[in-house]
Specification:
The structure holds two protein chains of two kinds. Chain A is α+β, with helices and mostly antiparallel strands. Chain A folds into two domains: 35-88, no CATH class; 98-297, no CATH class. Chain A has helices at residues 2-26, 33-41, 54-64, 77-88, 123-129, 145-149, 176-180, 208-214, 224-228, 253-257, 287-291, and strands at 98-102, 155-157, 164-166, 186-190, 197-200, 234-237, 240-243, 263-266. In chain A, the strands form four sheets. In chain A, strands 1-4 form a two-stranded antiparallel sheet. In chain A, helix 2 (33-41) packs across helix 3 and helix 2 (33-41) packs antiparallel against helix 4 (77-88). Chain B is mainly alpha-helical. Chain B has one domain. Chain B is built from nine helices and no strands. The longest helix of chain B is centred in the N-terminal third of the chain and has 33 residues, at 34-66. Classes of the chains: A alpha+beta, B mainly alpha. At the A-B interface, helix 1 of A face helix 3 and helix 4 of B.
Chain lengths: 298, 190
């Protein structure tokens, strides 16, 4: 009995193995070995930031493509693309590292709440319904679609300000939050030397007075920064200033002239002539400390 | 008529997930999006039908004549596992599109208890071959139905405000329980 059992089970197993072997030989699909090589150097985050379905799709596209001009892994950045190009023998385009930047600084103090939203807690749905709980119909809704979209735990809604904050070390600039934000507040900007960068932290396109009334930190399109900029990096369009990250030389003059403190500087050392700047957080200038560097207080 | 009744019984009255509590793992695991739920459901329909056919044949023409009924479970697992592997290899070559759609789910359901459960139930109930196939297909459709309904509810749940302690698995289990109670309402129609 035992013998029959062993023989029959072994027989089934052996028959199955033989059958599998035969079919796997017969139905073999040729896969370029370079695809798995490329896949090994990729970050394996499967975030889709490259525009392909996961790292496997990106690896296949890299092998297939004639050149790597349009292919870039935003998570791995230049170092990973270098490895990929070494495997494939194709030139990879040099890309500057970027990082997600939240262009809204309308925190609870700056942007008074005018009404109470009681619907589904989802930015995309809330944005389709109306302009938000405050007078600014451009600003952050604060329901955390960006937070939910992030695969890297790099963006979180600050419970105090109800604005998202990017953890720079974790951000891979995959662009998931950029797509998730229905208000187009988040932008991928050049990381800059020593992570120093200057940007207009507002997307409000209302006329100056309207914007100012809705939010004290809004860009009012006064063009002061545009005039101050010596490098032609700032353009005011639709009552909103925009700093071109490529042209900007990080001179910080625009930060000082902005009457609403809508222009933010990140990771700069404290200004020398100011004394009370030890309270400056590395992330962003707080409104109180920024006030000390405005021309009126000089 | 017999087969229609068998279909209704297997899909609604004795739903494999919500009444017999088989295959709970993918029911909770792959039910966050309707798309993946449909993919999983299709894969289960496919694998369950094929594996039931093969295990039925093996039971009646190999195990029973040799008097090896006690080896049912172990030999079933062996056959189902290699069968799914076989199907996967062939599918990859013959239909890459279908392989892409089912690819992830095929190996997942190899050792699913609802596959093995149905293969054994069919023998226990002493069905003939045609009855077994109909039973397997309708059970799998019942599984897919439960999965898709549950995924739909969970998609809605994801956008609602849920108390912190209930987020994730707890609310999913409560929902599954309520859904099972709803399916209890079908009991007695067949």
């Amino acid at each position: 009995m035992i013998l029959i059992a062993i023989i029959s089970l072994g027989g089934i197993g052996a028959a199955g193995a033989a059958l599998l072997y035969a079919t796997s030989k017969k139905f073999e699909v040729y896969e370029d070995p370079r695809v798995s090589q490329v896949q090994e150097v990729l970050p394996a985050a499967n975030c889709g930031g490259c525009g392909f379905a996961g790292c496997a799709g990106f690896a296949a596209a890299c092998v297939k493509a004639d050149n790597l001009d349009n292919l870039n892994c935003p998570v791995g950045g230049a170092s990973v693309m270098e490895k990929v190009s070494a495997i494939l023998g194709k030139e990879a385009l040099k890309t500057e590292p970027t990082v997600a930047v939240v262009r809204c600084n309308g925190d609870c103090d700056a942007r008074p709440q005018l009404n109470q939203y009681d619907g589904v807690s989802n930015c995309a749905i809330a944005a389709a319904l109306y302009g938000g709980e405050t007078g600014c119909s451009f600003g952050c809704l604060g329901m955390g679609d960006c937070e939910a979209s992030c695969n890297f735990d790099a963006i979180h809604i600050n419970p105090v300000t109800r604005l998202p904050e990017v953890i720079e070390d974790k951000c891979t600039s995959c662009g998931a939050c950029v797509k998730a934000c229905p208000k187009n507040i988040i932008e991928l900007r050049k990381k800059g030397p020593k992570s120093r960068r200057i940007y207009v932290s507002c997307v409000n396109q209302d006329k100056g007075g309207v914007a100012r009334k809705a939010c004290t930190n809004a860009c009012i399109g006064c063009s002061k920064c545009e005039k101050e900029c010596a490098f032609d990096a700032i353009k005011v369009e639709n009552n909103l200033a925009y700093i071109d990250p490529v042209k900007c030389r990080l001179c910080r003059k625009c930060v000082v002239v902005c009457p609403t403190m809508a222009i933010h500087e990140l990771n700069f050392p404290p200004r020398k002539e100011k004394e009370a700047d030890s309270t400056v957080k590395p992330q962003k200038i707080q409104p109180e400390t920024a006030a000390t560097v405005t021309p009126e207080n000089k | 008529m017999e087969y229609v009744l068998m279909f209704i019984a297997a899909v609604f009255v004795n739903n494999v997930v919500l009444t017999q509590f088989l295959g709970i793992c993918p029911f909770l695991g792959v039910s966050k999006k309707i798309d993946t739920a449909i993919g999983m459901g299709l894969a289960v329909v496919f694998v369950l039908t094929v594996s039931t056919l093969f295990t039925f044949l093996m039971q009646n023409y190999l195990l029973n004549p040799l008097g090896l009924g006690f080896m049912q479970t172990v030999s079933y697992i062996l056959v189902i596992a290699s069968l799914v592997q076989l199907v996967e290899i062939i599918l990859k070559k013959v239909s890459p599109a279908l392989y892409q759609a089912l690819g992830v789910f095929l190996p997942l359901i190899t050792t699913n208890c609802c596959i093995l459960g149905v293969a054994i139930l069919v023998i226990q109930k002493e069905f003939n071959l045609l009855q077994s196939i109909v039973y397997a297909i309708s059970t799998a459709i019942g599984f897919a139905l439960a999965l898709v309904i549950f995924a739909g509810i969970r998609e809605q749940l994801a956008m609602t405000r849920i108390p912190d302690g209930m987020k994730g698995t707890p609310i999913a289990l409560i929902t599954a329980g309520l859904l099972a109670m709803a399916f209890m309402g079908f009991s007695g129609i067949v």
